[in-house]
Amino acid sequence: MKKKNLISVVGPTGIGKTRLAIDLAKHFDTEIVSCDSRQFFREMKIGTASPSEEELAAVPHHFIGNLSVEDYYSIGQYEEDALKKLNELFENHETIILVGGSMMYEKAVIEGLNDLPEADEENQKKLHEIFENEGIDKLQEILKNLDPEYFAIVDFHNHRRLLRAIDVIWQTNKKYSELIAVSQDSRDFNVIRIGIEAPREELYDRINRRVDMMMEKGLLDEAKSLEKFKGLTALNTVGYSELFKYFDGEWDLDFAVSEIKKNSRRYAKRQLTWYRKADDIHYLQLGYSQQDFDDLIEYINEEFQK
């Protein structure tokens, strides 16, 4: 039986993945599955640059605004849910589009997660004490020494990611980056990965302008409405944590906004580091023309034939 096809659109934040995913979905008359872990939360539309109402209406999307920030949702749960959704969608479509810049979430769908050990209670206790007494900087330093490769791509502002990686390294005596590099389950669909690229200065300029646009659209009010949840993992992310510091009186607003831009650029840099290691991504230039898109479709169809 002929395998179904999954086209995964990847790239750094702010590069234009949503537009390309919609263009592809329209061409193949299909639906979009998001693997952007920040866009799962319905209360965080502006700060995560979730697709607009018009974009959502253009093509059916899945896993956008499907959760509340109060919901606990693990990457393992996402893998299970996303594969179930793909199986449903493949009943009516030959091809599905996956899109998002959350690297591990894409990996979970296209390759499967690794059989990593459960959290060790003693390690977690020890690491939480370090976090409480010496701050996130100390956790960053520990992970950087143990596994510089993973540190280069991890969201190092997210203390839970740091705790998890260090715990696993301590338990296994292996680098976390090596453990997650081992592909698990083979998938019963073909995967074609499409990336968008741009000169770094242009990407950073787009990111800066996008932050200004978010502020114009009401990011400040959105963050204010979520301030009561600031201790939750979902809100421990770029665009919100900086504004919470403004609300607390630690920073003035201009500085908070400049930090959002800086941290967004840093996140993009980590995404680029991750994608650069892959040799299976076919790239399209930012601002692609109709001819470029037609060439891409030709490439995809040739890959399907293989």
Please provide a written account of the structure.
By secondary structure, the chain is α/β, with parallel strands linked by helices. It has two domains: 4-113 and 185-210 and 279-305, P-loop containing nucleotide triphosphate hydrolases (Rossmann fold), CATH 3.40.50; 121-181, Histone, subunit A, CATH 1.10.20. It is 53% helix and 10% strand. The chain is built from 14 helices and six strands. The protein has helices at residues 17-27, 53-58, 75-90, 103-110, 121-134, 136-146, 148-151, 159-172, 176-181, 200-217, 219-225, 241-247, 253-276, 290-305; strands at 4-10, 32-34, 61-62, 95-99, 189-197, 281-285. It has a six-stranded parallel β-sheet, sandwiched between helices. β2 (32-34), α2 (53-58) and β3 form a beta-alpha-beta unit. α5 packs across α8 and α10 packs across α13 (253-276). It is globular. The model has no long low-confidence stretch (mean pLDDT 93).
